[in-house]
Amino acid sequence: MYHSKRGQKPESIEHPLYPVLVENMWGYIDRSGHLIIEPKFDNFGYFQEGLAHVQVGRKWGFIDKTGNIVIEPRFDFAWEFQEGLAAVQVEGKYGYLDKHGNYAIEPKFDNAWSFCEGLAAVEIGGKWGFIEKTGKWAIQPLLDWAFHFSEGLAAAGSGDKRGFIDKAGNFMLEIKFDFFENFREGLARVEVGGKHEYVGGEGNQAIEPGLEIFKISQKSPRKPIKIEVRGKYGYMDKTGNIVIAPKFEGAKDFREGLAAVEAERKYGFIDKQGNYAIEPRFNNAWSFREGLARVAEQHRCGFIDKMGDFVVPPIFYDALDFYNGLAMVEVEEKWGYIDRSGRFVWEPTR
Fold first, then answer.
1. Model confidence pTM above 0.90
2. What is the CATH number of domain 283-350?
3. Which of 118, 170, 278, 287 has a beta carbon 3.0–4.6 Å from 255's, enabling a disulfide?
4. What's the rounded Cα separation, in Å, for the pair 232 and 214?
5. Out of 12-16, 18-22, 246-250, 251-255, which region has the weakest mean confidence (pLDDT)?
6. Spans of all domains in the chain
């Protein structure tokens, strides 16, 4: 199943369409489960700003809500439209399309994010900067890395500086934490006490006993292995102050006033004061959307409300979050849609 690496979620719209897989081809249904666009695409994207990106053969293009192709499949990859433009990849370079299929910004970047709050983070020559919708530089490419803007700030790094920049490119907060992400609902997730070490190859380094390894990446068996050792997670506000102490083994963004956190290998939910709204008892948990949160219990997924009660019991092999009233769920390698009561509006298919 395709998931956009840009992390954009489908928009909330009055008459949404939902992707379905039938005999290994993707089409779209409406909220009632009626097939609106016949399954004829090799891969899918969600509708955003009236169009959805779809794959035909090896190329990506865009369709409207009648299923007509409005931008021919000619891109190596494409992302959702956001703020009127869509990022596309052609022969290893990234640019931006308007809704007529014309290049608003020619493909010339080595990497790119979608537009957020009027600017897009792009990489060129190993450095990151931000462009306006005309393609003009708003922030020159002098950064070593950058995320998209959220709530007026973007996480970025340049040399020894790591923190959050404003839309003029000024570092408003310099951060010394091991890990941090963009602000959401006024708070940003941070990690304290993590370690990044290399073992194997020349100059082996030992890993401190008792620390939990949670990510190992190895590009070549002859090269050192990068090992990321988990620290503790908490949250800071936009002044840089820690408002929820780093005491959690895992943590996710705040959404709808609550955040999923891990303590002693179980997930629960905290409010913005750091108090438990739902005590940790789940094997995994994700953010609330439309009043419900996806959680895992005994290797099955279900949905809870903000009291922590199951609204949809944990009976699915996998699931995605609710959007516009439906959630995609997996049953024995087949995917279908349920409503908020857990009733199937589209029986699982593949």
1. no
2. 2.40.10
3. 287
4. 12
5. 12-16
6. 283-350
